[in-house]
Amino acid sequence: MGYKKGIFLVTPAKVNVQAFKKRLKRTLRSLQQRPPLVVIVKLNPILRGWAQYYRPFNSKKAFGSVRRYLWTLVWKWCRNRHPTMALQTLRRKYFKRVGGNAWVFHARNADNRPATLVQLAWIKIERHTLCKNLNPFLPENRDYYLRRQSLGAKRSALLNANQSTLLKKQGGVCPVCTTGLLNGEPLDVHHIQSRKGGGKDTLRNLLLLHKFCHKQVTYSKSRRLQAAWKKEGILGDDAPSVGISSPKGSK
Fold first, then answer.
1. What are the tens digits of pLDDT across the range 130-152?
2. Does 30 share its domain with 115?
3. Fewer CB within 10 Å, N side or C side of the chain?
4. Same structural domain for residues 172 and 221?
5. Distance between CA atoms of 235 and 238, rounded to whole angstroms?
């Protein structure tokens, strides 16, 4: 903590930053014999959680310190894994350029899609903004709080770039239950046209849903619901049309 031109600043405590660095070191040591994809999968939630906690504070120096330290740990992990490999070959094998950063640790998942290690430099530090003194449960205030959720998610370290873009595009609303997405429930990315039916991982074919809503859309056998979801653009033409038959004699 400190003061700058009369402004009270909150910064991450040095002891907490050091403790986080030690945690990263222990984690990487435990993953020395694991493939790079496992390293990314294990480290990304740790990095996102820490960054999300300290993002509203005066954390620029702390982010930079952790970022540099993590790079040395990852590079050491690569060197220990291939002690005789030429350095340039090692760099090409494990790192790629993303934007202006030529040292982004990456791997491929089971679907041959790229996975990258979270870069703290990509996470924008944003100070808290005061919220209007409104009742969030009144219908007339719903749009205001949905807008705040959408803007907050755009800068959230807990959501990846696609999820943040989808949330902003959807106005912060789950199209299945029509309530705010950031209510504490887990979120899933839904393919309108399924991959099995030829659907792509493009934003035009994706929706952000509550996890429960996603399961409902995926497993529901109701013809009525399926028809409604197709009409709303939640399900594509490849969605199965089979379902619970109507009782005899009903129209």
1. 556 666 566 776 676 666 665 55
2. yes
3. C
4. yes
5. 8
The residue-averaged pLDDT of 24-43 equals 94
Question: pLDDT tens, 165-178?
Answer: 888 888 888 898 88
What is the distance between the alpha carbons of residues 187 and 162, in angstroms, rounded to a whole number?
Answer: 12
Give the count of alpha carbons within 13 A of 43, CB side only: 33
Q: What phi, psi does 94 have (nearest 5°)?
A: -115, -10
Q: Are 197 and 236 in contact (CB under 8 A)?
A: yes
pLDDT for 81-92, tens place per residue?
999 999 999 999
* Rounded average pLDDT over 96-101: 86
- For residue 195, the Cα-to-chain-centroid distance in whole angstroms is 20
pLDDT value for 57: 76
Tell me the two tokens of residue 19: 């403790």
> Are residues 51 and 153 located together in one domain of the fold?
no
**96 phi, psi to nearest 5 deg:** -140, 165
In a shared domain, residues 81 and 179: no
Closest listed residue to residue 225, CA positions, set 183, 175, 187, 170: 175
Residue 12 burial (CB count, 10 A) = 20
* CA quadruple 211, 213, 218, 221: dihedral sign: positive
Q: How far apart are CA 18 and CA 69, in angstroms?
A: 10
3-state secondary structure of 97: strand
Cα–Cα distance for residue pair 134/124, rounded to 1 Å: 27
